[in-house]
From TrEMBL:
Subcellular location: Cytoplasm
Protein name stated in the entry: Holliday junction branch migration complex subunit RuvA
Signal peptide boundaries: none
Entry domain remark: Has three domains with a flexible linker between the domains II and III and assumes an 'L' shape. Domain III is highly mobile and contacts RuvB.
Domain Helix-hairpin-helix DNA-binding motif class per the UniProt entry, residue ranges: 72-91, 107-126
Record function comment: The RuvA-RuvB-RuvC complex processes Holliday junction (HJ) DNA during genetic recombination and DNA repair, while the RuvA-RuvB complex plays an important role in the rescue of blocked DNA replication forks via replication fork reversal (RFR). RuvA specifically binds to HJ cruciform DNA, conferring on it an open structure. The RuvB hexamer acts as an ATP-dependent pump, pulling dsDNA into and through the RuvAB complex. HJ branch migration allows RuvC to scan DNA until it finds its consensus sequence, where it cleaves and resolves the cruciform DNA.
Domain of life: Bacteria
Recorded name of the encoding gene: ruvA
Species assigned in the record: Paenibacillus segetis
Taxonomic lineage of the native organism: Bacteria, Bacillati, Bacillota, Bacilli, Bacillales
Length: 205
């Protein structure tokens, strides 16, 4: 089984990257492909979940071990397949999702792509006691009270902006991108989702 890949981003699409590893191109489906495009042509490490089924062999890739581990926990929940789990991670950071499960915050979970109330309840029931040690905040994660801020209608842009600055983007670039995207950002949108939209615009120039 493949655990991680390290190589150059050869192709970028909305749902996946093609990673060139010593001349072999691997199609890897990611929560946020544009994160890897922001590395200025440097080699990137993508942590992999190697998914095998009767009709396909698929690679799902993540920027951190934490995302990889949470993805594997999510697909253990009845009704959540790899595609839905990928959507969950594209709509919320690991710390946000784990915090919501620990706090039994159904209102947050049903805002994630592909998650209805019954699935949210099943996530809480199945995972609440299995996520110890997961969900620690990282540079690209929301601040600890992200969920409360989202419920009050605040935007995820300030946190997303800090993460983008850490990737090397200038204030001028970020101000320009925000003007282009601000009307398409929901008040309750997760930080990772806001970053994905911004990186797509930045990558397009």
């Amino acid at each position: 089984m493949i655990d991680f890949l390290r190589g150059q981003v050869a192709q970028l699409e909305n749902e996946y990257v093609v990673l060139d590893v010593h001349g072999v191109g691997y199609r890897v489906f990611c929560p946020n492909p544009y994160y890897f495009a922001a590395k200025n042509d440097e080699p990137v490490t993508v942590y992999i979940h190697h998914h095998v089924r009767e009709d396909a062999i698929l690679l799902f890739g993540f920027a951190t071990r934490e995302e990889q581990k949470l993805f594997r926990k999510l697909i253990e929940v009845s009704g959540i397949g790899p595609r839905v789990a990928l959507g969950i991670l594209s709509g919320g950071s690991p710390s946000g999702v784990v915090t919501a499960i620990h706090q039994e915050n159904i209102n947050f979970l049903i805002k994630l792509p592909g998650i209805g109330r019954k699935t949210a309840q099943r996530m809480i029931l199945d995972l609440k006691d299995k996520l110890d040690g997961m969900g620690e905040a990282t540079l690209f994660d929301p601040i600890p009270d992200e969920i409360e801020l989202m419920q009050e209608g605040n935007l995820g842009w300030p946190e997303a902006r800090e993460g983008l600055k850490a990737l090397g983007y200038t204030d001028a670039e970020l101000d320009r991108v925000w003007q282009l995207m601000k009307d398409n950002v929901r008040p309750d949108e997760a930080v990772d989702s806001v970053m994905k939209k911004a990186l797509k615009l930045l990558y397009a120039g």
